[in-house]
Amino acid sequence: MEVGFIGLGAMGSHMAANLVKAGHVVHVWNRGRAAVDRLVALGAKACAIPRDAMRGDVVVSMLSGDVAARAVFIDGKVLDAENASKTVHVDMSTISVAFAKELTALHAKKQVAYVAAPVFGRPQAAKAGTLNIVVAGPDEAVERALPLLAHLGQVFRLGEKPQHASVVKIAGTLMIGCALEAMAESAALVESHGVRASDFFNIVNNTMFAAPVYQSYGAIIAERRDVSVPAGLALAERDINLALAAGADENVSLPFASQLRDNLLDARAHSDADRDWSFALANVARRRGGLT
Amino acid sequence: MEVGFIGLGAMGSHMAANLVKAGHVVHVWNRGRAAVDRLVALGAKACAIPRDAMRGDVVVSMLSGDVAARAVFIDGKVLDAENASKTVHVDMSTISVAFAKELTALHAKKQVAYVAAPVFGRPQAAKAGTLNIVVAGPDEAVERALPLLAHLGQVFRLGEKPQHASVVKIAGTLMIGCALEAMAESAALVESHGVRASDFFNIVNNTMFAAPVYQSYGAIIAERRDVSVPAGLALAERDINLALAAGADENVSLPFASQLRDNLLDARAHSDADRDWSFALANVARRRGGLT
Amino acid sequence: MEVGFIGLGAMGSHMAANLVKAGHVVHVWNRGRAAVDRLVALGAKACAIPRDAMRGDVVVSMLSGDVAARAVFIDGKVLDAENASKTVHVDMSTISVAFAKELTALHAKKQVAYVAAPVFGRPQAAKAGTLNIVVAGPDEAVERALPLLAHLGQVFRLGEKPQHASVVKIAGTLMIGCALEAMAESAALVESHGVRASDFFNIVNNTMFAAPVYQSYGAIIAERRDVSVPAGLALAERDINLALAAGADENVSLPFASQLRDNLLDARAHSDADRDWSFALANVARRRGGLT
Amino acid sequence: MEVGFIGLGAMGSHMAANLVKAGHVVHVWNRGRAAVDRLVALGAKACAIPRDAMRGDVVVSMLSGDVAARAVFIDGKVLDAENASKTVHVDMSTISVAFAKELTALHAKKQVAYVAAPVFGRPQAAKAGTLNIVVAGPDEAVERALPLLAHLGQVFRLGEKPQHASVVKIAGTLMIGCALEAMAESAALVESHGVRASDFFNIVNNTMFAAPVYQSYGAIIAERRDVSVPAGLALAERDINLALAAGADENVSLPFASQLRDNLLDARAHSDADRDWSFALANVARRRGGLT
After folding, report:
1. Over the stretch C135-175, which tens digit does the pLDDT of each residue have?
2. Which uninterrupted H or E stretch holds C88?
3. Of the candidates A244, A240, A236, A241, which has an alpha carbon nearest to the alpha carbon of residue A278?
4. Other C-beta atoms within 10 Å of A86: how many?
């Protein structure tokens, strides 16, 4: 299949590579040239501007949020590409519900098929092709994209409205954040009474909470593993702010999300901007309790 | 084995029955006579006062919290029973960390072996013998209790200090409450944007959150299942207040616990006192967002 | 003095009128024509576009926030007016700290003197000329503006950096919101125990809290006065979001502000969008407690 | 008048002294002997046990909370004193609403007139006789107490139910705590942007918030005045916990109170247990924002 791929960041570079390895002809664009070169070395074809990547049967985009997506789709006039209306645009970025609606309207106006397909999973999962992908858009367009998405992970379909995929992605990430804060507070609580957090998590995370989120992040929290993630908190704040914004759009207050927002700021004020948010939130909980 | 069993409530009655069925001679006491009669019909022996049940190799107690436990252990002078020092007292009640410490001191003074063994699990799990039991106490005493506990569920050992089992039970329940609130808020969020909560949970609770707590409570929340639990909120409030108290003992603030406390009050003010807390918290989140 | 005046809303129309009455020649512009006509009837001179009002010794602007101010100052290219650099621009709008900084840079580039002078006070105070005005900007520019501001209210000077006035205005409004929520919760608390809120406020608001904010809003809360304010909540949310944004700029978490944000959403979800925020927040507190 | 006085702590010692100075015959009791001796030196008469002070026309008690009051009134069987039913008992302690109700029932049973008269004001105000006193109880009893209370401060009457005075005292203190946190957050906010808190408070606390609470505590916060108050935080926590308990009694959630509780724990975890709560809360807000 001939496809376009826009956005070769920590996630997109792995995803595009998987498409190349699967034998597709992939036209790639990225804001920075180095990532493009790496993909070309794997067999991809370089595009000089985003619009050039708007070609083939399917175009996948993976950008870092509303700002980057707006710069490319709106300011970069990607949808004005000559053959845009012949492709299906599958945007896998995490964007706001409001912007997903705006993009739906814009694609309709430009007569380009639009599918939203945000993902759960970190760069390792992107590399392994084991992302969880939430897909929403017109059936016909989704059908065309499915064979491609199968290389990237497991697909969950969610009907025809792109913004539904967006809100599911946002709500799911909120649930992750809540799980982290719950573990952070619980770890501080048991530690303050002399119990090792690892002993505690060994019990609850192997029974009631025997799920990937708890087990992977629980280990980081228990062992105070200083996991470096460049701009990790900025990403976490983006996600929590997306939840708060989506709630505000419909008058839904989310007190746990508000607390997470406050705690992420606390973490940033204490030099954890470049750490995984599990580590950062655990530091906040322990620091408040005087546990260091 | 000859054992005592104090407290035949929704949990204890099933647990004592399992011990009887396993062939043990079980001397039972309960505040209300009806529950005693039911156990006697299964083969247990009735005790007129708690102190009479303080006999045999092991005495298990399962009471509804600090108040009930204090009434029996302190006011009822159970530890003054003639052969108390020959038994091992295994208290499986959920009690405060402070009271666990007080009981440790009292047992030491009275020379009665004391093991704390609070459990995770609801009455169905008590009936099925599939509780998760957190055990802490002197090794020798724990060893004597283990064969008995094996009839009741899976055992997790946690060292020699009884209060450590107490804080682990409390922190684990806090994590459950946080998971419920996280699902309640997320369900309200996706619903406000037109996505069914069941569609959302089908995705996240079968992947990142594929764990018993999420799957069982997620169904209640998604389907707005009006699960009746007599005094359900009072029990939930007891548990969250235990977490807040354990935190306050050591100056550890727990913002998610504080939020849960507030939301449980909101639920109680809106006639959900006798509902499962998952249902009640979901109602709070939806009501605040005007979703009904 | 010859002055310009941009923005004749609920506040600005009174303020401009006061300048006219004081004998100044006032060139007014407003997005809607009706407000301009009313001022012209009082003796002001109409401007067709904002840039036409950028004339005279001082130009005052009073717009409804970042969006409106950006539309006029940036998109409307007001600072490119022919004689802009001969005037002093006194912006009395409530805007974000970030935008105040941006405006400072823009004015410097365009060589227009810029003074920030946001106000505390509602339309009645604007009418009465009793606003509290927080003024920051270059001394010379401030000196030129002072005689004019004297017609509008009491001036508090705060140094040379315009954004300092902005953050003081924002923080002061946060304090008002906190006072409202404090009264809302306290009123619900005493009422739930059978004490009239008015009896309670008669005590505390005449002693410890004998201040205008408490006395005026306390009466609204106690008497459940259904004060209609078109888009009242939107304005309140704007102000609280400005506080949260200013905090986030510098990693300062503001838990009371977060709570206010959540409660304002709750109010909006319950049809209080067009009410004074004191009334709306009191409704939230009472509704949560089942007091209606 | 012949009166009894029970409880000579930081507040009670000044209050009893004022009664002595006003010419009354005051029979005093206190748990510690030293305070009794100081009052005797002023002209009071010493009592060996609390019950001995239960005499005369009016008996005033000023104890440090439920625990101390319970020890004296219930365990100390003060109401069983021979002439108890001839006196009017005016309890000026800050106690829970629930305990005020319990005391009402107990006094009724023992046929002793009971007036609740908790106060707003710190030891300096007790010394100066400028307390604000909230009085509730049977009219006849209150009338007898009024001449005495006039020596201690300004009286606000609140009907016949003693617990009404209790909840008003509790709600008023909650409002103080909220004002402190509001100032703490606002101070952190303006400081993070380079504005001195004192410059900010000079504006808002002399206009909208021109009230004693804001002006006295605002100075402490702005100047980071390290005000030592032995067990200051314990007292503050007692008061906030009273509010939370009174709310929980009637299902009223108080989110600002919950936040205050959390922040006081944070302060305690950071060695501010013996500081005024204004100073302690300001430290929490600044520390979270990385401002030190």
Report:
1. 999 999 999 999 999 999 999 999 999 999 999 999 999 99
2. strand C88-91
3. A236
4. 14
Residues of A in contact with C248 (CB under 8 A): 265
Q: What region, left, alpha or beta, does residue C55 occupy, with left being phi > 0 and alpha being psi -120 to 50 degrees?
A: beta
Residue D231 is predicted with a pLDDT of 87
The torsion angles phi and psi of A78, rounded to 5 degrees, stand at -60, -35
Q: Could you tell me if B288 lies within 8 Å of chain C, comparing CB atoms? A: yes
Q: Rg for chain C (alpha carbons), in Å?
A: 20
Mean pLDDT, chain B, whole residue set: 97
Q: Is D58 within 8 Å of D52 (Cβ atoms)?
A: no
- Residues A130-171: tens digit of each pLDDT: 999 999 999 999 999 999 999 999 999 999 999 999 999 999
Residues of B with Cβ-Cβ distance to D269 under 8 angstroms: 251-253
Residue B259 in tokens: 């939020």
User: Which residues, 6 or more positions from B290, have their beta carbon under 8 angstroms from its beta carbon?
Assistant: A251, C269, C270
Query: Edge to edge, what strands does the sheet with C58-61 contain?
Result: C45-46, C25-29, C2-6, C58-61, C88-91, C113-116
A292 pLDDT more than 90: no
Alpha-carbon distance values, D103 to A227, D71, D72 (Å) = 57, 12, 12
Quote the minimal CA–CA distance from A219 to chain D in Å: 26
Q: Which residues of A are catalytic?
A: 169
- Do the Cβ atoms of C110 and C79 come closer than 8 Å? yes
Beta carbons of A116 and A88 less than 8 angstroms apart: no
Total length of chain B: 292
Residue A61 CA to residue A133 CA, distance in Å, equals 13
Residue-level length of chain A = 292
Question: Given CB atoms, is A185 within the 8 Å cutoff of chain B?
Answer: yes
The interface pTM score, or ipTM, of the predicted complex is 0.97
Q: What are A81-112's pLDDT values in tens digits?
A: 999 999 999 999 999 999 999 999 999 999 99
| Nearest residue, CB atoms, C247 vs list A253, A259, A265 | A265
Q: Are strands C58-61 and C2-6 parallel, antiparallel or unpaired?
A: parallel
Q: Which amino acid is at D18?
A: N
- For D66-107, the pLDDT digits (tens) are 999 999 999 999 999 999 999 999 999 999 999 999 999 999
- pLDDT given at position C40: 98
The CA radius of gyration of chain D, in Å to the nearest whole number, is 20
Q: In the prediction, which pLDDT does B231 show?
A: 87
Sheet bearing B131-135, strands edge to edge: B119-120, B131-135, B153-157
In this structure, what token pair is assigned to residue C56?
């005279």
Instruction: Chain D: give the shortest CA distance to residue B42, in Å.
Output: 41
Number of H helices, E strands in chain B: 12, 9
H/E stretch holding B5 reads strand B2-6
- Using CB atoms, pick whichever of B266, B289, B290 lies closest to residue C288: B266
